[in-house]
Amino acid sequence: MWHYWWKILSAIIVLATIIFGLGTPLSPGIPAVEPDRINNGVTSLTIKGYNTRFTDNPDAIKVWITNGDATFCPYEKTVVDDTHIRVTFSVTEKIADAFFDLYVNTPREGTMYLPSALLQNGLEVSLNPDEGDDCISTVSAAADAFDFPNQPILNETIRNVFYHVPSWFAMIFILVVSLVHSVIFLNKGNPLSDISAANAAKVGLLFALIGLGTGSVWARFTWGAWWVNDPRLNGAAIAVLIYLAYFVLRSSVNDSEKAGRLAAVYNIFAFVMMVLFVLILPRLTDSLHPGAGGNPAFNQYDLDDNMRVVLYPAIIAWFGMAYWIYDLKNRMEKMKFKQIMKDDY
Amino acid sequence: MRKEITAIFLRDLRMEWRQPHAVGSILLYIVASIFVAYLGFKQVVDVQTWNALFWIIVLFAAFNAASRSFSLENSGRRIYLYTLARPEAVILGKMLYNAFLLTVMVFLGMFIYAGVIGIAPLEDPDWLALGVALFLGGIGLAFVLTLISALAAQSDNNLGLMAILGLPVILPLLLILIRFSKNAIDGIAWSANGTYALQLVALALLSLGLSYILFPYLWRE
Predict the structure, then answer these.
(1) A8 CB near a chain B CB, below 8 Å?
(2) What is the distance in angstroms between the Cα of A276 and the nearest Cα belonging to chain B?
(3) Whole-angstrom Cα distance, residue B221 to residue A251?
(4) What pLDDT shows up at residue B82?
(5) pLDDT value, residue B112
(6) What pairs with residue A140 in β-bridges?
(7) Which residue, B58, B37, B187, is CA-closest to B118?
(8) What percent of chain A has pLDDT over 70?
(9) How far is B179 from chain A (nearest CA, A)?
(10) What is the pLDDT of residue A202?
């Protein structure tokens, strides 16, 4: 009973990460503003809130836009409902950087921020700039709720980090298991090691496909395409190709001892090349993917503590699940192998 | 060890020299591919297309050349070699020979390619960087593909398996190579482009080391 505690533990943690990962609300944010352009002169905007309760204290809400040089306050502000505010700005100045960031501060939600929310249209030089910073407020929210950060482009898809990232970690982990068995096979020549290596590679392929699937869906929602030409993504595709080739090689040689030897050599060679490509190369070139080309990955400011609480156990639990699947498959295949051996002699 | 490597290198060179049709077939392969590309494209002006097309042609020629390095050895000759030389010497000799062959092929191919497809993109290239790219390209392709060809030679379906096994493994090298030589053709400064050369050298050395370690397991039967 007690020697499979890790199976129970990982199953419970995976269940918990699904419940907490999907059930925890996002913190309030402002995902959109309509229209996203601001004209010289008077412009009315509707700010959309997400998980916000603007009607709680409508008078305390502060709204301002800034482009770094100048800050503008709305001269009219109406709270429509919990998730909509209508504001009217009067911008009569053209400044070098025409992109404005939008800030909303409320006593309940703290400061919410939408970068590059507005683009200034037209060119007009004003005689009396009407900037003022009397509307800027730094009232911070009472941080009592357990929630996930509301990032501008990610929005709700930020939860995918709990499933996409662990699937790649689990893949690397189980492929290392495969590699170790390949090395053992080359040194000892025990056919059971070869079976273990192949099964671990199969499970690794499964996790690679999960990672590709979750990543593809995520890319569609954040970058706008199912697939982009990016070193990290190409590396993932190459990893899948390598392990498909590994299975072709194993099955194309009839002599199982020789097939195992060829496959083990290829496994080691290809693994090193793949790790080089997936982990190292994207860091040297530009990439959309987090963790490359100056893009933030997790472990930095944009992954907050609430997410770590879910992500780190999730990674451990996925390791456990991957090893469990591999273990089941491995025991079955080894039994089959021993059965064949018994039948032969 | 060094004597064994040189002996194998010279043996392969002599074998190639005695059967000129073998080298000729690779050269013909390149020329035919370039001619097909010419029929399809006429002249290519765009640098990116010009560069990528060249490396794709070279890639398939390299597959062709490398796949011969072990499939030519019939099993009797293989056993003879096995008794004479250490496996490490065999793989290093073969790799060096392939590197030599492919580097010559790449440079020759570049001349023919530029002549047929057009020299319009070569307006103001960094000649030194382009030369380094061709040189490292030939060596890198040869180093990675030699072990793969040793693998494929032991299976029953040699050429098909060579492509399946080799393509995913060669892709990292090829991507760096294409970017490096495009930058060289664009005349980008060495200070910005040099990292790619270092990456190519690192990849070549890595595959050299891995082949050195892994090949003895393939060789004993």
Answers:
(1) no
(2) 8
(3) 19
(4) 75
(5) 92
(6) none
(7) B37
(8) 82
(9) 11
(10) 93
Confidence class for position A134, pLDDT limits 50, 70, 90 = low
Domains and CATH numbers, chain A: 29-120 (2.60.40.10), 155-344 (no CATH)
Give the pairing of strands A76-81 and A41-50.
Answer: unpaired
Name the strands in the sheet holding A71-72, side by side, starting at the edge strand that comes first in the sequence.
A37-38, A110-120, A99-106, A62-66, A71-72
Residue A128: pLDDT above 50? no
> Which residue has better confidence, A312 or A58?
A312
- Please give the tally of structural domains in chain B: 1
Contact B168 A270 (CB under 8 A): yes
pLDDT for A92 equals 66
B199:A284 CB<8 A: yes
**In the predicted model, what is the mean pLDDT of residues A275-284?**
69
The residue range of the domain holding B195 is 2-219
DSSP B145-214: HHHHHHHHHHSS-HHHHHHHHHHHHHHHHHHHHHHHHHHHHHT--HHHHHHHHHHHHHHHHHHHHHHHHH
State the best of B154, B156, B176, B193 to mutate against chain A, taking most chain A CBs within 10 Å: B154
For residue B108, is pLDDT > 60?
yes
Give the length of chain A.
345
* Complex ipTM: 0.85
Rounded Cα–Cα distance for residues A207 and A202 (Å): 9
User: Could you report the per-residue pLDDT of A283-312, keeping only the tens digit for each?
Assistant: 666 666 665 444 445 444 455 677 788 888
Contact B133, B177 (CB under 8 A): yes
d(CA A284, CA A249): 32
In angstroms, what CA-CA distances link B178 with A65, B141, B171? Answer: 45, 12, 10
Nearest to B171 among A238, A252, A262 (CB): A238
Q: Is A258 on the interface with B (CB under 8 A)?
A: yes
Q: Interhelix angle for A256-275 vs B190-219, to 10°?
A: 160
The nearest alpha carbon in chain B to A271 belongs to B169
Q: Which tokens hold the place of A287?
A: 């990439």
